Amino acid sequence: MPAADVVHSADPNSPEALDALRHSTAHVMAQAVQELFPGTKITIGPAIENGFYYDFDSPHRFTEEDFPKIEKRMLQIAEGNHDFVGREVSYEESKKYWAARGESYKLELLEGFKDQKLTHYSHGTFTDLCRGGHTPNTRAIRHFKLLSVAGAYWRGDEKNPMLQRLYATAWPTKPQLVEHLKQLEEAKKRDHRKLGPALGLFSIQELAGPGLIFWHPKGGRVRMIMEDWLKGEALKRGYQMVFTPHIANLDLWNTSGHTGFYRQNMFGAIEVEKADYQLKPMNCPGHILIYKSALRSYKDLPLRLAELGTVYRYERSGVLHGLLRVRGFTQDDAHIFCTPDQIEAEVEGCVDFALTVFKTYGFEKYAMEVSTWDPEKTGDYSGEAEEWERATKALEGVLSRRGIPYKLIKGEAAFYGPKIDMKLIDAIGRPWQLSTVQFDFNLPKKFDLEFVGSDGARHRPLMVHRALYGSIERFFGILVEHYAGAFPLWLAPVQAKILTITEAEVPPAEALKKTLEAAGLRVELDARSERIQHKIREATLEKVPYMVVLGPKDVAAGTLAVRRRDGKQIFGVRPEDFVERLSEEAARKATAPSWE
Ligand SMILES: [Zn+2]
Ligand SMILES: [Zn+2]
Questions:
Q1: Which ligand is located closest to the Cα atom of residue 24?
Q2: Cis bond upstream, residue 210 (ω within 30)
Q3: Is 236 among the catalytic positions?
Q4: Secondary-structure breakdown of the chain: helix, strand, coil percentages, each rounded to the nearest 5
Q5: Same domain, 206 and 61
Q6: Residue 122 alpha carbon to ligand 1 centre in Å
């Protein structure tokens, strides 16, 4: 890899300058750690989104208690005012340098870079083997913080030794650091891995294995609403629902090519009567078989096949993360088979559907990217130049026409076709990759798909994969964090909770529950002989949108004392008004309480 020079950027917040600052801070952290914990070996320390990490092999077991000491030493080093100096070195020279220091990981890295230009970057007394991209001087390094420590396999391979990864963040200014730490703090409070079990939404069970999700009744209720709404929208938009098996003969996956290019993410084959079967990692081949089950005419197209399809992917245990990275999940998957003339309209339909999803769930901000091939390396891709151009033009055309800003990224597409990736921005400003509209020039060829054109000849249809939620598990996790567990009324597993003050209110409370349920509301009754303050506190923790506190006076007056989950109270409400207000708020899918 070519050595980049020190990054001189007029804008300290440009992506290059931020990466340089963070990676340089990683050097300083490595030095501090080696000084404070003798016997620690260094490996790699790249910049990542919003920060950086460094992987160490150390006899010391790092804990958060080490962080202040490391940070203090880092600051001292940075204040030493050292320039980052890059120097090209020969393989022999570099090898001698790292061997003398017993840096076995650097020696291993060196073997991989043998035929490349090698650079050593130094500040003060510390040197690292790296590609460059640093701040000019350690002076720029002031506003950083160590965040966490985690295990990480050397080179991400579970056969290699387990290293200790120190995560940290660094920013050009103090206010930026403070703001980022505040966001992290807020993110911690919203962590779906904590809120999920606390709110009775889902769990991961040790006995069943990691990365497998158990949806509990309340989470199951939300999921059902999410699925029903999506299916209803899909039907309105001309999709047809299909169901395909979770397991299929390996021959299918050989034909699709997944056993080649997707092998890494597939579980092993299962023997069934001397044949090999495969858990499905994707729904596409199943939908293709449905397409192929009949001779299709141009009049049948576009054919939009949709499935809430559960797939199984072999994710390494190290990357599993709550609902965000799992081993079994359900995609709101669809495949559109169409003629070349129809692609603009089909892409438009997908983008429109995705925007409806974003709006419905209360996401106002989003970012879009179009990924296409690298025109210099057409040999790496499936499909003809003309197909790539037309499809990329269709993707860009739809976004431009709708006035949606997007980034065009060349060389980022999968080998089989260009795509639009849609990221939404959540309530605390974090981006999440969600929907994808992806062309595929490969599978129609592999399965020899055809349709009879208006000219009576056979043609190959175009195929588009599209998922809007992406994975229902993952999207649900994002929603939990976006709403901080306080689902809007239309999604809330329990919409109202009736709390009795004394024993005497239990019969009228039961009658009220029946009335509300008859109106289609999801209601719970807390008739325990606990103090009312305690009941209110519990319902608040459960994030139930509306509470009805039923006491003797209300029963006598035939009215309700309503309490919103944010604490606002509304007194003297007639039951029929309560039903009407809640029904209206839910029907509108309001994302904030509409009842003042
Ligand atoms: Zn470096
Ligand atoms: Zn697909």
A1: 1
A2: no
A3: no
A4: 40, 30, 30
A5: no
A6: 8
- Are 570 and 595 a contacting pair, CB within 8 Å? yes
pLDDT at 158: 84
- The single-letter DSSP state of residue 116 is S
Query: 133 and 73 share a domain?
Result: yes
Q: Which of 123, 165, 419, 565 is catalytic?
A: 419
Choosing from 145, 166, 190, the residue where a domain stops is: 190
For position 10, what pLDDT does the model report?
77
Which ligand is closest in space to the CA of residue 288?
2
Is 465 a residue of the active site? yes
Give the pLDDT band of residue 423 (cuts 50, 70, 90).
very high
Q: How far apart are CA 209 and CA 335, in angstroms?
A: 31
Give 29 Cα–ligand 1 centroid separation in angstroms.
12
Catalytic residue among 27, 180, 258, 465: 465
Q: 418 and 337, same structural domain?
A: yes
Average pLDDT, the chain: 95
Is there a domain that residue 516 lies in? yes
181/205 same-domain check:
no
Query: Residue 2, SS3?
Result: coil
Residue 350 a catalytic site member: no
Does residue 333 have an active-site annotation? yes
Q: Are residues 109 and 232 in the same domain?
A: no
Last residue of a domain, one of 144, 173, 190: 190
pTM, to two decimals: 0.86
170 and 212 part of one domain: no
Catalytic residue among 331, 342, 438, 495: 331
Tell me, what DSSP letter sits at residue 295? -
Question: Out of 335, 430, 513, 543, which one is annotated catalytic?
Answer: 335
Same domain? For 390 and 538 the reply is no
Instruction: Give the CATH number of the domain where residue 317 resides.
Output: 3.30.930.10
Catalytic residue among 19, 128, 332, 333, which?
Answer: 333
**Residue 398: which residues within 8 A CB-CB, separation 6 or more?**
344, 347, 348, 351
Per the residue annotation, which of 192, 221, 313, 565 is the catalytic one?
313
Quote the domain boundaries for residue 539.
496-587
Q: Where does residue 177 rank: exposed (0-12), middle (13-18), buried (19+ CB within 10 A)?
A: middle
Does the annotation mark 419 as catalytic? yes
Q: Is residue 313 annotated as a catalytic residue, yes or no? A: yes
**Is residue 550 in a domain?**
yes
pLDDT one-digit tens code per residue, 68-77: 999 999 999 9
253 assigned to some structural domain: no
Distance CA 431, CA 427 (A): 10
The total number of structural domains in the chain stands at 3
Q: What is the CATH number of the domain that holds 569?
A: 3.40.50.800
pLDDT band at 594 (very low <50, low <70, confident <90, very high): confident
pLDDT bin (cut points 50, 70, 90) of residue 5 is low
505/551 Cα distance (integer angstroms): 6
User: Which ligand ends up closest to the CA of 417?
Assistant: 2
In the residue annotation, 335 being an active-site residue is answered as yes
pLDDT in tens, 357-392: 999 999 999 999 999 999 899 889 998 999 999 999
Cα(539) to ligand 1 centroid in Å equals 52
